[in-house]
Amino acid sequence: MRCLGLDLGSKTLGIAISDTTNTIATIYTTLRFDEDDYDSLIPQLKDIILKNDIDVIVLGLPKNMNNTLGKRAEITLDFKEKLEKQLLVKVTLMDERLTSVISNNVMIEADMSRKKRKKKVDGIAAQIILQDYLDRERTMKNGREE
Fold this sequence. Notes:
Shape: globular
Number of domains: 1
Mean pLDDT: 87
CATH topology: Nucleotidyltransferase, domain 5
Largest sheet: 5 strands, mixed
Strand content: 15-25%
CATH class: Alpha Beta
Helix content: 40-55%
Distance between the termini: 25 Å
CATH superfamily: YqgF/RNase H-like domain
Structural class: alpha/beta
CATH architecture: 2-Layer Sandwich
Radius of gyration: 15 Å
Order of helices and strands: EEEHEHEHH
Low-confidence stretches: none
């Protein structure tokens, strides 16, 4: 079984996938959709889940820096509920604060053009969200929660 990491935006969904050992997250794809048309993502995600034997989805939760939940977080919570009801898969939330900033910084360090960064930022953010989850799960499994 594998895990899927998601970074939900208003027009894009960054997707990352774990390896079969749930150790390493890699970018899978970025889905584009009409603004706020989250329902259109469900059939595409269903295909990805079936093709890749996914048993857990890790969805980034965009908290405010003061740890409160804003409009984007409420949209994400609604999307989580839709995923669980329609795809019958466990959805875990992960704090995604600063993942887009980190992913942009990584690409700037790699001297990537602004145009290329814009296309990749969601996938890298999803990869960071998923890798954080995989690392946390491995640490907890080893009995050493940090």
